[in-house]
Amino acid sequence: MTITERAITVLAPGAAPVSAFRRWLAPATFGVFGIVDALVLGGYSHKGDAIFAFSQTFAKVTVPNLSLPAAATCYVCGAISIAIAAARAFAPLSKVWRRVALGLVCFLFVVALLCWADAGQRAEHDRDRPGQGARQQVHDVER
User: Fold this and answer.
1) Model confidence over 15-41: pLDDT tens digits?
2) Span 91-95, mean pLDDT?
3) 3-state helix vs strand vs coil in the chain, percent to 5
4) Nearest to 113 by CA among 57, 52, 53
5) Helix-helix angle 121-128:133-142, to 10 degrees
6) How far apart are CA 18 and CA 27, in angstroms?
7) What is the spatial distance between Cα 129 and Cα 78, in angstroms, rounded to a whole number?
8) Could you tell me the pLDDT band of residue 47, with boundaries at 50, 70 and 90?
9) Spatial contact of 45 and 71, defined as CB atoms under 8 Å apart
10) Are 87 and 108 in contact (CB under 8 A)?
11) Which of 29, 34, 62, 130 is deepest in the core (most CB within 10 A)?
12) In contact, 125 and 115? CB cutoff 8 Å
C-alpha cells in the first residue's frame, strides 16, 4: 500500500462528544462569578459611587466621568452573569456566542471589582489632604 492508496480518515460532521463535566464547567464558572459579584463584591462594597474617568483633566477633549452606584452595579453585574450562565447551560449556543458570553462575564466581573474597590475612596482621599475636601468642611464648621 502506498501513500496515495491509503484511505483518508474523515470525521463525521456535527458536534464532537463532550463529557458532562466539560458541558457544565463554563456555566458553573459563570454562576460562581455572578454569585461573587452579587454577594461578595456587592455586599461588601462601600457606600457611595465609583467614578470612572475617561479623560485627563488637562486634555483638550474631555469626556464626562461615569459615576455608578457601587453596590447596585455589583448586583446588576452578578444578575447578568447568572443569566448568562443559565443561557449557556440550557441553550445551544454557537462557538461565537460562547466566546462572547465568556468575554462579557469577565468584563462584568472586572466592572464589579472596580466598583467595589473605588466606591467611597473619594472621601477618604479628601481627608488625607489637609485643607481640602471633607477636612476643609470640618474646619469651616468648627470656626
Assistant:
1) 567 788 888 999 999 999 999 999 999
2) 91
3) 60, 5, 35
4) 52
5) 60
6) 14
7) 35
8) confident
9) yes
10) no
11) 34
12) no
CA 124, CA 47: separation in Å to the nearest integer? 12
Beta strands per DSSP E along the chain? 49-52, 66-69
CB neighbour burial string for 55-73, b if at least 16 within 10 angstroms, e if fewer: eeeeeeeeeeeeebbbbeb
The model's pTM is 0.71
**Per-residue pLDDT at 48:** 85
Structure-block grid coordinates of residue 48:
457611595
pLDDT in tens, 113-130: 999 998 766 654 444 444
